[in-house]
Each structure stands twice: as C-alpha cells, then as structure tokens.
Amino acid sequence: MPPFLTQLSRILQNSITLANSQSIASIQEKSFRDYVTNVDFTVDKFLTQELQKLTPNIKVLSEERVIEGAEETFWIIDPIDGTHNLLSGIPIVGISAALFEGHVLRASAVADIHRAHVFSAQKEAGAFLNGHRLRVPNEPSSLVAVSTGAMDCLIESKEAYKALRSIGKLRNLGSQALHICYVASGVFSTAISLEAKFWDDAAASLIAEEAGASYQSFSGITRRLILDSKLSTNCLRSICAHPSTLKASQQISMRLSWAEEELNGE
Q: Which residues have C-beta within 8 Å of that of residue 188, sequence separation ≥ 6?
C-alpha cells in the first residue's frame, strides 16, 4: 500500500477508536430527520487536526461546517455517515475523508467503525481494505443497496422496481459511503442513491473505481461542476455498480429520475 495511504488509514483507524469511545450527549436536528450529534463534531475536529498535520496548509472542508467553496487543493470529510444509525444503535456507521487536487480526486479513506475496517484508495495506485489490495469479485452479488429517496421513487415506478429486483434483493443500510465501499468489496452489486451529497460519495467513489467498479452521477453534476459552481449541497443522483450490472443500473437510474420528477410534480 502506498505510504501516504498507510498514514491516512492510520488516521481513520484512530477516528474509529475515538468515535467508539464517545457517548451521545447532544443531538441537533439539521433538517427533517437529519441529525448531528456531539460525536459528529468530535470526530470532525479530530480529522481536521490530523489531516492538517498530514498535509499542512491544505484546507479541510466538512459536512458539519459551512462549505464556502474549495481551494485548489482541499480535503472533504464526513465525520459520521449514518448518524441516524448511530442514534438508533444500528452498527453501520462510516467516517470518510477525500483529498482533491483541483478537479482530481487523489486519495481517500472510509472507516467502517463497528467492524474496525478501513477502505482506502489512491488515484492510479489501487484500492485497499485494511492494507490488502481490494478488487471487485468476478461475479456480482445478488444484493442491491438502495437509498431512502430511491425507495420512495420505486413506489412510483413499478418498471424500475421490477428491473432492480431482477438484479437482486434490495437493502438500505443507512450509510451511503459504506453502500459504495460494499460494492467495491462485493457485498453489493449496485448502490443507487437519489439524495447523496458531495461529501457522502466523494471518498467512497474513488475506492470503488480503483477496485474496478463504476461510479457516476446521473444528475449531470460532474465533479468539475460541483467544484467550479460550489454545488456541494446538490443531490448527486449517483450509482455505483459492478461492471456486469452497470448497464442495467444506468437504465434503472433514468426511470427513477422520471419517477422523482413525477413525485415532485415537475
């Protein structure tokens, strides 16, 4: 594993220890059923400090702090991905960090805190799980990860539902970053989301791509557009898929987009 990823993975591993040592003392509702806790802020502060030690003078942006636009080189972190799971005692929670140089995603890591696993990747250097090389399996899983927003739209589109079920059984684990990482490791064949934001997908998308999966936004919002236009809070409408399920996933994503427009009265 590249030395830089070894250092980054160590930071994420230490963030697991920190997160697991915390008790929930405060809860704030940012929007409808979207929460932030003292654990989010504690991990956010820790990651910011440690990443600045690793890469001095590089700005660290976060879901939990106002994003005013990126500099040429920056980190984007999500200190707790799956806060609702954390509150409910469901052991599926992620922590992520991604390093951008201009429009290029250079390196990233995602921690699966309850399994003490760290996924990591470096551009053109491969993906890794706990330091071991990670590749998508030859045969896809029969499980498909579906976000809550996508599930809402499946109710409106029987065709999309039938097509998705032809790929596999549906699951929603409540952590978008881990959904994508689990495509990379072969747990899922596909992960579809309508509501994921930039910080949800950034780190995991590189891991998936370097492991041999495909990742794309079907909203037309590219990484370049996100960064140039400061569209960090826009929904990506993303898919991550095993090569053998990519074409079917793309077709399903379009059907879900149409269903979403009908649901929103557009």
A: 141, 143, 144, 145, 171, 179, 182
Q: Per-10-residue mean pLDDT for the chain, 266 residues long? A: 96 97 76 74 96 94 64 88 92 96 92 97 97 97 94 85 92 97 98 90 96 84 56 77 92 75 60
- pTM confidence score: 0.91
Other C-beta atoms within 10 Å of 101: how many? Answer: 13
CATH number corresponding to 143-263? 3.40.190.80
The number of C-alpha atoms within 13 Å of 91 and in the hemisphere containing its C-beta is 7
8 A C-beta contact, residue 35 and residue 84:
yes
Would you identify the CATH topology of the domain 3-134? Fructose-1,6-Bisphosphatase; Chain A, domain 1 (3.30.540)
Do 92 and 77 contact (CB within 8 A), yes or no? no
Residues 180 and 203 sit within 8 Å (Cβ to Cβ): no
**Which residues are 81's β-sheet partners?**
94
Q: Which of 253, 98, 86 is nearest to 177 (CA)?
A: 98
